[in-house]
Amino acid sequence: SVVFDVKKPDGQITSVSAVTSANGVAQVELSDYHTRAAGQYLVVGHFENSSSIGGVNTFDVLPADVSFAKSSVSPADQVVRSSSERAVLTVSLVDNYDNPISDHVVTLVSSSSSDSISPVSVLSDEFGQAEFQVSSDESGTTTYTVYDSTSDVVLDQRAKVLYLLDGSQVLTNDSYDPEKYFYAASGSGGLSVDSFEFSYITPSITAG
Asked: pLDDT grade, residue 208 (50/70/90)?
């Protein structure tokens, strides 16, 4: 029988064997399990139990379609405390197998008309990433949605930026001591709070 050694883009090698036909032809099919990673694959053939190999052949695997579920925008939440400060949002486009998808036109859509969006890179790069800087003249929470116009896909994940431009503060642990749970907020009181949560609470503290 003949063994085909397939070297994947990440350097891993998969070996698949096949029995030659009456015409001396050996043929194998690689399942998509072995070709999920996008990139160039190297293939060499040799007889079983023999170190003598034939010529080296190559084939390329391209990324699949953009996954609206696995692609992301980060960070998911952040706070801006000045009108001169800009938040940075990074979009990462991948397929279902986490292969980065490059050269796609990405648009960031804001839920607020008072925001300013400055694309650092509109096209996704070799890592599937596109970057945006956002700012606002008004306090409040803005939700940003990502649209891949090349694939006509809207990502599932959203990013939220809380703009605190009037000296307000979010809930914080003022003591910076995890054993002291004193939380306070200050500000004009003119903002509405969409939601808040407590994390890293010890089991000794119960709801009530």
From this structure: low
Whole-number Å distance between alpha carbons of 6 and 24: 21
Main-chain phi, psi angles of 143, to 5 degrees: -105, 135
Specify the residue for token string 């796609």: 104
Q: Rounded distance, CA 91 to CA 74, Å?
A: 7
Tokens 């599937």 — which residue?
Answer: 128
Find the Cα–Cα–Cα–Cα dihedral 103, 104, 109, 115, rounded to 10°: 10
pLDDT per residue over 100-112, tens digit each? Answer: 999 999 999 999 9
Among residues 126, 125, 115, which one has the least CA distance to residue 163? 115
* Residue 190: C-alpha distances to residues 6, 15, 40, 84, 193 (Å): 63, 66, 57, 21, 10
Angle at 187 between CA 137 and CA 75, to 5 degrees: 55
Structure tokens that stand for 154 in this block: 């809207």
Write phi, then psi, for 118 (nearest 5 degrees).
-120, 105
- pTM for the structure as a whole: 0.71
Residue of 94, 92, 103 lying closest to 36 (CA atoms): 94
Residue that the structure tokens 């994390």 belong to = 199
Confidence grade of residue 183 (pLDDT, cut at 50, 70, 90)? very low
pLDDT on residue 189: 45
Which of 135, 102, 152 lies closest to 144 in space, CA to CA? 135
Residue 152's identity, in one-letter code, is D
Quote the pLDDT of residue 10.
Answer: 92
